[in-house]
TrEMBL record:
InterPro entries: Cro/C1-type_HTH (IPR001387), Lambda_DNA-bd_dom_sf (IPR010982). Residues 23-79 form the HTH cro/C1-type domain. Transmembrane segments: none annotated. This is Putative transcriptional regulator.
């Protein structure tokens, strides 16, 4: 039975495709063959090709493995780190007295 893949909105598909392109460009800049990069990432050549195309059926772990091989996995530390919207929502849920104390810090 084939895997079901939840459809992404077109802007998200384009974002994933751009990520795949950047991954491929990074691999080529390092002069790594696709075969060697796939081997180091512990995946098939077909999976690496899917990552480089921005395939949405590929696990996030596969993307992380390739980024690690390329020395780019530390970039993931910045994902969702700041979260200003989340902080604003959290602060809005605080009682007024706590919000005043929190804002003063």
């Amino acid at each position: 039975m084939a895997k079901r893949i939840a459809p992404l909105l077109p802007p998200l598909e384009r974002r994933l495709a751009r990520l795949g392109e950047r991954i491929r460009t990074a691999r080529l800049r390092r002069r790594l063959s696709a075969k060697l990069a796939a081997e180091r990432a512990g995946m098939s050549l077909m999976t690496l090709r899917s990552v480089e195309r921005g395939g949405m059926g590929v696990t996030i772990g596969a993307y992380v493995a390739v980024l690690h091989v390329l020395g780019l996995d530390s970039d993931l530390d910045a994902v969702a780190q700041a979260d200003p919207l989340g902080r604003d929502l959290q602060d809005a849920a605080l009682p007024n007295a706590a919000r005043t104390k929190h804002a003063a810090k």
